[in-house]
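Hi everyone, sorry if this is the wrong subforum. Our group has a chain we'd like a structural model of before ordering constructs, and none of us has done structure prediction before. Sequence below.
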Amino acid sequence: MAGLTRCRQKPLSAEMTIHPLVNIPWKTGGRDPRLGLDCVGLALAHLHSIGVNVSVPPTSSLLNSSRPASVLALHPFDRATLTANSLVFFADDSGRPAHVAIYLGGDKFLHTLQGCASRIDRGLTLFRRVGLTPVAQITPEHAQDIAAALSIPGLGWATAILLIISIALSAATAFLTPRPKIGQFRNESGRYGFDQLWTQTNPTIPLPDLFGAVSVAGNCPYQSRVDRSQTPGDPPHQKANKIVILSQGPIEDFQFDSNQIKINGLLHSDPHWHPSGYALNPDQTKAAAVDGTIGSDTHRPSITLYTGAHDISVPVDIRAHYDRNFPVYGFPGCAYLVARLVDSTKYSQWNLIATPKGRLCRTFDASGFIRTTITAEAVGTGDGTTTRFKLDHDDIETISSLTVAGTPFSPISADHQAGNVFHLNRTKGFIEFITPPPPSAAITASYTYFPRSWTRNPARILIYLLTEKINGKGFPEDKIDWEAANALQTHCDELVTWQTHAGTTTEPRYRADYALDYRKPVQDHIRAILDACYSVLIAANGKLVLKPRAAAEPVFAFDTSNILAGSFSAEMMDRSQRANRFHIFYHSLETFSAETEVVRDNPDDQADRAERLGNDGVVEETLRMLAVSTQSQAERLGETMLREDIGSRWIVDFKTTVKGLALQVFDIIEISHPSQPAWTSKKFRIESIEMDENDYLKITASEYVPNAYI
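Answer:
Right subforum, don't worry. Here is the predicted structure as tokens:
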């Protein structure tokens, strides 16, 4: 058992012990503040300063003891009950205790990382960024438990990884860039070519990939010849087949909300086409699909919809059996429709508009992609000829077991290509055998798959674009900062209330509806989705981090103790370039994704600048929000930028002497400096971080405007 002596409590508060124990250099095994400390030594020094002396035995005497490892479980971490002078213990990514810090109260933590001087962090954000998770807290009253916990082998070896930071350009990162004049765009980028909403017949135009809900007109690769044996006036009318492909990938549904399919501007159900309108998905019989006899109706036009859902066989539309000019049976993996047109006087200029619900994206939480395990699924029964069978789900991660008539089968491989083997198509979710399973042989499989669902959440779409191997950047799952991604997902889903001309709306904060054109690089599309949620993509500690520009708490405080002498400068921004009127162009679902404009301005600021600037004091900025589809979201984004531009007056530049500081752009920091005596922990938002030739971090930050974010 560790030795313990207790002295009379000294009348020192946590705040009074800050300065003597800040900026003490790191020393492995250090126990003397004059020579250097590690995190255990820092904890002991702090305890000594408040009258608690703890003796930590050598690690070798504890090798066969379970006491150090088990003591942390007696004091689980609970942020709500954390009190000043408590020691907080952290585990690394493997779950091993690796670090200890002192809680000073007021959300301040005193600690030191390997190779770095001791410092005070605000909150737990910077700890988590270097892979440290709080697992236990022990108050000074439990000194024996503290002694045991500080004896845990390996405690104190947490390392601060220097950050390499890059930014994916988005509107959110352009706060300090020169302001363009009206008519120019800060985030210039093209929109998919189909937004002219005219059904194309052009084989050179690629199909879009749809996310969220987007109005498209599609591309028609085929229309059959008109039946010349009939004339427009004959009772049977002239009929023809037409294929229109809407998306290069599977979709959830052809109709979003109440948006029905329109043909030449009329609903498909309009009696102009037939007293009963177009029939959707009629029974696949010759009479229904070819002759137009559907129920009691005759010569009724029809549309059959194919969402592109994965299946073993290619969808076969019955029209293919009766029209020798029909070139293909289907378009596997694509969302398309086959129309049976009736009466050539009504379809000579046939143009379709649909607003489908687009791609399904994987679901995730703070730990990564969500996985679901299926046990002993009855896949099917052999018939002696069929070799391919479909699982109930797509996007398969692994098959843990597969049996045919009770006999185990294994995946085919380079070394195992004969006998009881199978091939798995992970994307489409089907298995294929070399030899057809015999008749009546039951096929059973247990497997894990990734659930997918339709979404308009920008974070979900961004993760799709970052991780998909074919359609995205193909980054592996372990390269994503999942806590940050999940935080952005939650941030986007939070309900906000906003007043528009049509009344008060309550809706998710950010949504994205987007048609992706693969003629453009994926990073252009990532940027468009980032713009929709006013966020940024950065790389830090080998992870991709999604981060919103939003209201937040400070993560660190800077003053003369950690700002490099002579490096600090503060100046007022040039307001002549700060916009007080924003023009936001977005693609409104109310007008079938046509580009629409909203304006947000501040008349008071314009009046204040009128005499100095002329032009009635108006400074304008224009942005295109390619993935925004609602007026309220466009207005809220414009209002946020407007409040930032008007409310943020100061910009600071400085270098910090603190090493291993896991700061990121958009972090909120506090600054106190004698050159600005009116500032007391004034809040700023980091706009950029650079490393100079001497390995000092150079930080540029703008004045934080807490009421800017909606």
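For your construct planning: The CA atoms of residues 99 and 156 lie 5 Å apart. The longest strand covers residues 372-381.
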